Task: structure prediction
Amino acid sequence: MITFIGKTLFMKVLLIISCFLFFCCQNTNAARNTTCKDCSFTGVVTDALTKKPIPNVVVTAKTIETNEAYKVTTDEFGQYQLPSLPNGTYNLRFEYDNYRTVEKRNVVVKKSPAKLNIELINPEQIEEDHHNWLMKFDI
Result:
């Protein structure tokens, strides 16, 4: 009879420990995939030649894990903010008419805000500047 009571007690303790471990693992996975209020990208997008901010640049953050996309546009000062992103790894894309698109790959979102300033290049401005330089030196 003592052996039966010992086995029953052992099984109850084992069940309690198993449940505890199960719930701990579930909470860890949930915490890994949640959105945190401080996980964000902020920055300023400027013209590479003039160093002036560029408004209305489309900034897209796409998760590598789920391919989910988050989009914002820069304000009148070239500033952008992608707030409250889920933890993970992202590919960031910066697009604006007449400028070369810039991509930053495998950027990791952690528990703190990330600042990422970007300079966009307008190929037409570079070409014009090159022609002015040629004319200046009579080439």
